[in-house]
Amino acid sequence: MAQAPALPSGFELPLEPRLPRIGSVDQVAVEERAATLATRSIKRESKLFALDLAVRMIDLTTLEGADTPGKVAALSSKAMRPDPADLTVPPVAAVCVYPNLVPHALERVRGSGVKVASVATAFPSGQVPTELKVEEAARVAELGADEIDMVIDRGAFLSGHYAKVYDEVRRVKEVCGTAHLKVILETGELGTYDNVRRASLLAIAGGADFIKTSTGKIQPAATLPVTLVMLEAIRDVYEETGKKIGMKPSGGIRHSKQAVQYLVLLHETLGPEWLTPDLFRFGASSLLNDVLMQIRKERTGRYQSPDYFTID
Amino acid sequence: MAEVEKRQDRSPVPSAFEYATAPESREIVRLEERYGLFLGGEWAEPSSGEYAPSVAPRDEEVLAEVAYAGAEDVDLAVRAARDAFTNGWSDLPASERAKYLFRIARILQERSREFAVLESLDGGKPIRESRDVDLPLSAAHFFYYAGWADKLEYAFPNRRPRPLGVAGQIIPWNFPLLMLSWKIAPALAAGNTVVLKPAESTPLTALLFADVLRQAELPAGVVNVVTGDGRAGAEIVKHPDVDKIAFTGSTEVGKEIMRAVAGTGKSITLELGGKAANIIFDDAPLDQAVEGIVNGIYFNQGHVCCAGSRLFVQEPVYEEVLAKLKRRMGTLRVGDPLDKNTDVGAINSREQLERIEELVSSGEEEGAEIYQPPCRLPEKGWWFPPTVFTNVAQSYRIAQEEIFGPVLSVLTFRTPDEAVEKANNTPYGLSAGVWTEKGSRILSVAQRLRAGVVWANTYNRFDPASPFGGYKESGFGREGGLHGLAPYLEFEE
Amino acid sequence: MSRLPVKKTYKLYVGGAFPRSESGRTYEVEGANVALASRKDVREAVRAARGAFPKWAGMTAYNRGQVLYRVAEMMEGRKAEFAELTGDEAEVNEAVDRWVWYAGWADKLAQVLGSSNPVAGPYFNFTVPEPTGIVGIVAPEEPALAGLVSRLAPAVVGGNVAVVLASEHRPLAAVTLAEVLATSDVPGGVVNLLTGRKRELAPVLAAHMDVNALDLAGAEEDVAELERLAADSVKRIARNGDGQSPWHAAAYLELKTVWHPIGV
User: Fold this and answer.
1) Cβ–Cβ gap B17/A49 under 8 Å
2) Please, what CATH class does the domain formed by A27-300 belong to?
3) B437–chain A Cβ distance below 8 A for any pair
4) B34-272+472-490 has which fold?
5) What pLDDT, in 10s, does the model give residues A87-130?
6) What is the C-alpha to C-alpha distance for residues A48 and A290, in angstroms, rounded to an integer?
7) Domain span(s) for CATH 3.40.309.10 in chain B
8) Whole-model pTM?
């Protein structure tokens, strides 16, 4: 099978676990493929399944300087019971907050099955010495977060210091303990799909359990083509090593129609085994209400108004 | 209308996440029970009184009856074309001629859905292709050539171009309306009049096109549509008052046409068969290359003269490419052409299906290894699953002969020189594909490939501005672009 | 008792909208009050044009051709109105046909003006035409409609955007043309039309550092001074005559030549 090639700046991917060739990605073709997949139409029964799954896959997120315990309390309630008028709607996968709000979130969601994810590593910029970023991650793990969403150092990546990027992922993974690690690539800053693929493989090599598109703080955030590229990298890792890595598109997914398109993309690229919150999440906030509206529309046959769905 | 058999759920897809059939309604098409010949702006009965059914490949439903023209009918058509040419069309100011073509382009855009549905019904290709490729390109062809009609002196400076007169045009069944546009648009732009013979198995969009001509108020006789089989084609070819023959179809028939016009001085252009090499280098973007491979041979069920039917994979990435290809083949949906989710439609005719089956058997007999993903095929109609052969030798019939179906042969190579040599090692020379990240290699390989169209890091791209045509036994003459005008003109210089 | 018609206000056309002059001024001409544009209006028009340039230049040539053909369609629909304003039906027909003529050039200019160049070495070498950017057009006084169209169509067909100073004495046809453009899928800002005193506005346009090319066909006075002002940013000065030609479009197209080695 193919050998892992040497990257510039003398950095080589470790041969164990073996990783696929970095290779390259053709922009025109990948965008076209994503656009074609977006036109698949799925059965009505499957649509309800997809919408329900979408809810279960949401990491309900608030990452604002203005977040308070009160805001997180409201978010947590919404996360545990998205639609008070319809108790068949399941809870979301997780709430995603800043480190200071982790204890408040934990208290609120205890016993509900909803996880608490926290950002770390000087989110969103990552422009801080490595030691401090690792320390932050360790503290967040200590606080009891179930999941840690770190950012890669884009400054290092874009100046070719891939070893540093890899190293930071590895060291953060080491301090995660039982928490699972999502690595945010901030694809909107990477410039090319080649770089997205390269960053995906680097992050996975470093120990990522999930790779994630964006911080949600800049445009562009998640797109279908970028997601396709990351899913293809995950597929190649699976083919080479048997290891299943998860994926999380985040930012810019506001409508159910988009969420379903992402699930179609996931299904066609990785297959039905990946259709689970253990391997796919949506980083979103306003998406939830749109999905709830669609679920109710499918159930009642009537188009809905936002007035009937709570804003938390 | 017969329903396509409902599929039983035996697919590897979980019932939790199934694609709906997303059928495009056929109500938008109004079919006559019977069509005559379109001669001199009127509908006429064939002199022989002969009609034959046009059948939908997806379920063998008879869609309509069409006339089969004989020698007398062809003569009437040519007279009508000649009459229109001498009495009005050739004297019309070129800008006015252009306006007719602009009108036709616009009307095709407006009636796009109607034509797309009819094309898929009559020919078997998926509605997604007829809607997203065939129709937009057909309209674009008319739009592009409309713009040249009054600018010929810029295309051929100092040559004083003039139309040839009456063009006889014979088109195939794989892209019926698109091939009609490729033929009629430049011919009319150059000032000629036309006798067009659509393929026997796909006459309906050409007949509906006559209605577009009515809406565009094109003068009578400028375009005449003569339906029929090979006999009508032969009559057109040998008619003494046809100044130019344009033919797209098999190399075999192309050679017959050449023999028929030998010594007559008749101008001809031929766009014939192909056996294109699609070459994947080890530095190619692999997932996208696999899309390109799939698009190259399974697009339009492989009924494409420029199909990438010989896949050459550089050895280091052979296993990976095959694995990805097979997985991707498994996600191709074969089914009702009118279903928007369908990727691969029906085989155009029983004859074509038999030809594909015969060649596929030969492949197995000669020792190639066949792979076909699990695939439910409807019971009625003509269908063939996407197929790939490995362990193929250059000498096998499946690597030599044009199959014109969804069947790919895979061979390997080690160096660029070897790839080029093997790619060129065929009497055909229509097209080729090159997949590599390295720019200089794209140019070097493209330069050495003996093929009229080279696609680098893409496949099956068409545009009215881009000349298309072959080397060697794939024919001569170009369609599209500035170069596509030349075959329809004579020059003082 | 006969019905009192609702009289039309003739405004500027900038960024796809119809604002009055920021100066609030008008002048009376052809029986109407027409906006009298100021130097600040020129500034805004250039800004709008620059904003619209990437999208217009980035469209496929085919799309641009379609838009120009649509302009012809819309103009044809209002032929009676134009004929009344110009007093000359033949001029209106000429103007419409000119749009159609140039529409057909959009996806052919590269084939006639560009080339693949056989250099003496293992290099692939090709030349492509590209739009220069913002074209400032001082439209001829006469013929007020066909003269304007003859200057404007070749500028925009190749992907350029335009700031036009209309005929000063007969501006109504130009403003009506702007209304046609606004309803023809022409993106806002691609064409900007200002009415007013050429003596006041032309020097501003000629001196503006973000305007890339000029057509001074309608500048009856002080052409020399305008060309001197243009020199400060090395503007391309078009010397297009009357009539129609792809070379009129070429006046606003840069030529880019690209080299790439050929090798394995």
Assistant:
1) yes
2) alpha beta
3) yes
4) Aldehyde Dehydrogenase; Chain A, domain 1 (3.40.605)
5) 999 999 999 999 999 999 999 999 999 999 999 999 999 999 99
6) 13
7) 277-456
8) 0.91
